[in-house]
Amino acid sequence: MKSITSYLGLIVLFITFQACAPARVPFTQQLREKYELKPEELKSIQFYTSNDLVLRRGENKNSKETENGELKLLKDGLLEEIVIKAGTPCLIEEVVDGNRVKVSFEDGVNKYLVFGSINNRDGYYTLLATEWVGGKGKMNYGEQMYMSNSGSKDLFLTLRVKSLQKFKTDQKVVKGKKI
Known about the structure:
Elements: H1 2-20, E1 24-26, H2 29-34, H3 39-43, E2 47-49, E3 53-67, E4 70-84, E5 89-97, E6 100-104, E7 112-116, E8 126-127, E9 131-133, E10 136-141, E11 144-148, E12 157-160
Antiparallel strand pairs: 1-12, 2-5, 2-12, 3-4, 3-11, 5-6, 6-7, 7-8, 9-10, 10-11
């Protein structure tokens, strides 16, 4: 019985701490403007991805030859994938303009993706590509061209917002004035 009570106590404690943790909210143009976030401030905020993102690039080498009266088709290839899971921490590397930012997930030359609040009605900073084909984006990452997974057009940045309220109340009661 004592172990059940201890176990329930740990669950309640865990839930309490989870409830106190600041929730992640979408990074939007409205949030950026409301708090007048400057480029230096944006670079010091920890951002996260909302969904999974898979970047793929590959080379196919198809060849043919004839041998003993048969046609042989040879397929050889290399597929490179970069997986960025939902909730992956990232940083703003550079503020491009009023509504586009370069976001990095790792160190390296030109290893960034561009997010922006362009052409979306909700103002979310979503993944941008040089071209969208069938829900898949074509984009540069680390000096290479990749195609993103379908649905990546809906990927957006999130951040944690912690609201601290500190008010000091200084109160005095006056008795009034008499003649």
